[in-house]
Here is the input.
Amino acid sequence: MDDVTIRFDHVSKVYASREQGAAVADLSLDVRAHEVLVLVGPSGCGKSTTLRMANRLVEPTSGRILLEGEDVTRVDPVALRRRIGYVIQNVGLFPHRTVAQNVATVPRLLGWDRRRTGARVEELLDLVGLEPQRYARRYPHELSGGERQRVGVARALATDPPVLLMDEPFGAVDPVGRRRLQEQFARIQRELGTTVMLVTHDIDEAVRMADRVAVLSPGAHVEQLAAPLDVVARPATPAVADLVGRGRVARLLSLGAVQREDLDADDTGAPADGAPRLPLGTELGQALDALLGTDGPVLVTDGEAVVGRLAPQTLVRALARLAAAEPDVVTPVTSPPDHDEAVGTLSR
Ligand code: ADP
Ligand code: MG
Here is the structure.
């Protein structure tokens, strides 16, 4: 299980005061090393409870949770939380400490010296896009919601934990700011290779952020566990279909890519100098924008070569392909850009 970072093994949680049965009922789930696994589902379905059991803020009633193969109940909770960063919705920054002091919380606990701590704080503030000169000495109330959220992320990353648990981490931010934070966070996560378990009730956030999505229903029952595109294109159960139903086509447009098989062959011979060009692998939504932005043809290229034309029918075919394809044939745009790999998939 080298590639499994967190394993939930038949885990249940019963809150004595809760009357509707187990909050988490017999959950088995693996979080793989270096992936972003997103738990998504309706309010009260057990997402936060699941997350909080991984760092022992909540103790399971039964079952086991393994962190890198080690039973978490055998690890001292304080030591455990050094290995696992935790980011929550309203951040929980210390109000009477500056940004720098907040970020330095865990390094201080670990007894790092002033110099090492200071250097790390600067590095982290840079990483999350907060200029240290401007922000280090401010207090939380002097920040916007989005800035506070960034400080929360910086604080959780301070000692470079291999695992990060995030509970609705961007929830308190306006939609535009949220999008920017999500993108920035995705970049940081790829750079650091952190294993992330993220909880959200927002399916759009889930499909945007995840390598894999676990759709949960009450009791933390796993309805579907798959790549974002699979969840959107081929919901496994009515509950998943219900969650992704509205705006499904828009989501497919942002997750799917133009592939060679969808194209009209460019054999018309009509001159197309100066026509807009898009490479294979372009996000379908961008392709649609390109079509809407011109009266003439849009050409699709593979390196230097023009390989076909984009037509409205191209997009219809691509959407049909996504909805019908087997999971291993699709090339989601969310995977790291890798031209050779994308071309390899096309020629299969
Ligand atoms: P989610 O994060 O998906 O909204 P939670 O894991 O917070 O769901 O909660 C799952 C269920 O357990 C809910 O019905 C919630 O009311 C209940 N619950 C959560 N925490 C406690 C607690 N400390 N005591 C009793 N019931 C709780
Ligand atoms: Mg919750």
Summary: The CA atoms of residues 271 and 297 lie 10 Å apart. The chain is about 40% helix and 20% strand. The two ends are 30 Å apart (CA to CA). Residues 326-348 have pLDDT under 50 and may be disordered.
